[in-house]
Amino acid sequence: MHHRKSHSRALVGVAILSAAAAVLTGCASSTGPAASDLTVDSVDKALSTKATITVWSWQPGIEDIADAFMDEYPDITVDVVNAGQGNDEYAKLSSSIKAGSGAPDVVQLEYSILPQYATAGDVVNVSAIGYDDLADTFTASAYAQSKVGDDVFAYPMDDGPMAMYYRTDIFDEYGIAVPTTWDEFATAAETLHAADPSKYLTAIDPAGAMNAEGLIGQAGGVPYQTDGSDVTIDLADEGTTRWADYWSGLIASDAVKSDSFWTDGWWQALDNGTYATWIAGAWAPSSMESTIPNSSGKWAVAPVPSWDADAPTSGVQGGSGIAVTTQSENQAVSAAFARWMTTSDTATDALTTDLKIYPTSQRIATSDEWLGAQSEYFGGQEINRVFSESGQNVKEGFQYLPFQQYADSIFSDYVGAAFADKTDISEALVKYQAALVKFAGEQGYTVK
Amino acid sequence: MTQLATGRRRSMPAHRLSVPTILVMTALLLYCVLPFWWLIVSSTKSNGDLFSTFGLWFGRAFSLFDNLGQLFTHQNGIYLEWLGNTVLYAVVGGVGATILATLGGYGLASFTFPGSRKILGIVIVAMAVPATALAIPMFLLFSSLGIVNTRWIIVLLSLASPLGLYLMQVFAAQAVPRELLEAARLDGASETRIFVTIVSKLLAPGFVTVLLFNVVAIWNNYFLPLIMLSDPRLYPLTVGLNQWNSQASGSSGATEALYNLVVTGSLVGILPLIVVFVVLQRYWVAGLAAGSSR
Amino acid sequence: MALRPSRSLFRRRAFGPEWTGLYLVVPFLLVFAIGIVAPLLYAMYLSLYRDQMVGGNIFVGLDNYFAALVDPLFYTGLGHVALYVVIQVPIMVVLALVAALALDSRRMRGKSLFRIALFLPFAVPSVVAALMWGFLYGNDFGLVGQIRDFTGIDIPNLLSSDWILASLGNITTWGFTGYNMLIFYAALKAIPEEIYEAADLDGAGEIKMALHIKLPQLGPAIVLAIVFAIISSFQLFNEPSVVSTLAPTVITTYFTPNMYAYNLSVFGQQYNYSAALAVLLGLITAIAALAVHQFGRWKWRDQ
């Protein structure tokens, strides 16, 4: 009898402790402060209040901009935290939101992920607080991407109009003219690979969901549409199919290689010219300059090949804005900071000059200084002109899913596998679509 | 029976070397060390060299000192903060976890009380659910108590070492014979006295082994701090270096390739563990020698 | 063996000194409850709900578990780890045993050096391992590629789906043989002198000693190593995760059940289904681990 009592006693103690903790959290189901009643006025006034805000951004150098802000508005303390890049930050953001605390006041979000948080009500709709008046201060491309539906949810910080980076030395050696259309690109790919089987015109990333989305958008594909709780997922639409068939052909004929980007082997291949081009957003140059400085001077930038020679179009890959979280208890101050950071001359100049990110400010994007900047890495070329033109030609209309992060995470399971196995991409898209439709259904969406 | 058979087996005169044994062990040694050679060589390279020269031999320039300099100054010397955090978590957490595991293991091995046999079973069952999958529930749970994003939560959560408990139970069962304890009790010694004067010495080698495992495990722990911490100033090396590593693959904003720092930082981060191992090893061997002569 | 007094003399004694055992374990149990049991219970609680993007948090009972039981992605992952348990664990344990016995042998030199070298891999964190193995396994510019260029031997793509499990097993073996070896080595060192004396093996060879004395004494340590290796194998995450950036199509997001659960939770915010998967995986792992543990307790019940 003694025996049984004390046996259970120890275990009961453990159980109670754990259960208590579990119950406590079960009860904590707060969703943060209600959507605010921000006004233009309250945001303006916020600049002279005393407050401390936390900003999550992975952009190196943001602390310096925050310092400049604090010099101008000494009553406000801005704490910049690098909570991780992209997905790492989003994981923490999501779990902080679910937990009801721990989320920052201002957070950097990629445009493709913005709808996810906007539709969930996790970031503040800033249309009402004078954002619409600021439309002209931003480039058209940036402004469009900061919207979800008709409302604006983020202040654009940078942009990622796509371009084709190519090796001038390889092109010269094999007598390849810079392709301006996808047809020319295909021909050039076959020519190069036939002349030298160890080289490819470009590599394609099996985990490159964002690149795919950018190019599908360029091709006119609109596979995803969201309207409230209705979601349309059609990866067999005209534009998407055009993209799929094109790349299926190139991969199957070995003219283009499937390779994992951002790996040791891939960087080496870029450096030594195994891949003669890289199609990516406007953020690529600084990456290349710091990782593969040895091939400096051998690269140049050209617009992404177009489908139609007479009507060139482009796509976007990447780019991010900063948003105010609804969990924030200092929404007015946060909005004020975000606005300052993306519109004030001090901040935007610093972003472009010191942090070297792609400008979203119309003033800078149209300035001769920026347009005429020459890049040593790219053989003295005025690369910003190419990006600017690309940004203006971006085909509009592409929408992201409210669960784009999940969709991107399983991209390589389906579509990436088709790249690597050289099978038909359209077939892979059918399976990918099935997985996305299933997920949408489980999340309560009505799928069309 | 000759006198040689009794006493110190270890100090018998050297036997003829077994060549096959040495060959096999050397092969194993090379297998284990090869990736380290890559790490050492890579730490001497700059970014440019890292991606354009052969991995197992040096690059065009010897950049080790440049890399080290950059390592300790980048981002206002945050690497040193990370190193400090790692030491804190590993030492305080490691020592604490080992003490708890040792006491517990001894308790389970040398005493029979109701439930003593079931506890190990319960521990195994609880360990069977993967920690990575528990990471976010853990975050949600502790977030509601408001104790995430602090150094102490990491230390606290590092104190539970089920492996340590299991290991110490096995060691204690093997190294502490019950007759010894009974004899001491019959002599009138208190449990505390018994533990301090007799048992602790017997458990020392096991303690050192578990300490080593716990220190290394906490030093290299990635998921727990990743989930619990959002302020980079509190990160241990694993999370910090990983963040630097992904900093280079950008899709937004300017990126900076920090590969050379990741590699050099990893090398610098492993050195203290090697030192710990060498130091503990000496104590361990000495402890074993003392323990075996009773 | 003859020296051992009968324990029945002490078994019925007052519960005095034996209770000390409980007090000794309580501190551990406390942190264990907070750090491991509490999150586990909370995860179980989460697994009974579903938090939808449209519709909010609803109670679904065991639906998540039923869904997991018919989820082909779960079984794909389970298949991979089952293979791991059956193949990689024995290889690693045997290798560690051989190494420990060799180090304990009187016919070895330079033991400290070997101990450190074999332990080193365990000291490497996964971010570094990713870089290192990325290089070593790299098909074009990595070591594999270089060897192929130099020697002309056509080494197969170690990151292809045919070879991936073996390649991963290699990384695990590399990383944990030293760890297991240390456990065995410490256990070997703790074998009391009397055992050797009693066996009267003056002049006996190492192999005979290993087989007849050392191995039997190592029983509980071997069981422990196997139990932990089984748990680690079922929970396989780090090694495939490390390699996933190199071979994202071969290492799918559901390559192991643990990765599947993790990815669902981190990328899909599907905390509930993820928790159900984790608990289900835990159940399967626990059964396997407990089976081995119980076997060990039965076989070496008097030790």
Query: Strand percentage of chain B, roughly?
Result: under 5%
CATH architecture of chain B: Orthogonal Bundle
* Cα separation of the termini of chain C: 11 Å
Total helices of chain C: the number is: 14
Rounded to the nearest angstrom, the radius of gyration of chain B is 24 Å
> Class by helix and strand content of chain C?
mainly alpha
Folded structure, characterized:
The complex is a heterotrimer of chains A (448), B (294) and C (303). By secondary structure, chain A is of the alpha/beta class. In chain A, 46% of the residues lie in helices and 14% in strands. In chain A, the strands form four sheets. In chain A, strands 2-1-3-14-6 form a five-stranded mixed β-sheet. In chain A, strands 11-8-12-7-13 form a five-stranded mixed β-sheet. Chain A has a three-stranded mixed β-sheet with strand order 9-10-15, covered by helices on one side. Chain B has helices spanning 19-43, 47-50, 64-110, 116-127, 131-144, 151-158, 162-175, 178-186, 191-219, 223-228, 237-247, 259-292. Chain B starts with 18 loop residues before the first helix and ends with a helix. Chain B is mainly α. In chain B, helix 3 (64-110) runs parallel beside helix 12 (259-292), helix 7 (162-175) crosses helix 9 and helix 11 runs antiparallel to helix 12 (259-292). Chain C has helices at residues 8-11, 16-46, 63-69, 72-104, 111-119, 126-137, 143-151, 164-189, 193-199, 206-217, 219-234, 238-244, 257-267, 271-299; strands at residues 49-52, 56-59. A two-stranded antiparallel ribbon of chain C has the order 1-2. Chain C is flat, with a radius of gyration of 24 Å. Chains in contact: A-B, A-C, B-C. Chains A and C meet through helix 1, helix 4, helix 11, helix 18 and helix 19 of A and helix 2, strand 1, helix 6 and helix 13 of C.
Any descriptors?
heterotrimer, B: 294 residues, mainly alpha, MetI-like fold, 0% strand, globular, disordered N terminus, C: 303 residues, two-stranded antiparallel ribbon, 14 helices, 3% strand
Provide a quick synopsis of the model.
Chain B is mainly alpha-helical and 294 residues long. Chain B has one domain: MetI-like fold (Orthogonal Bundle).
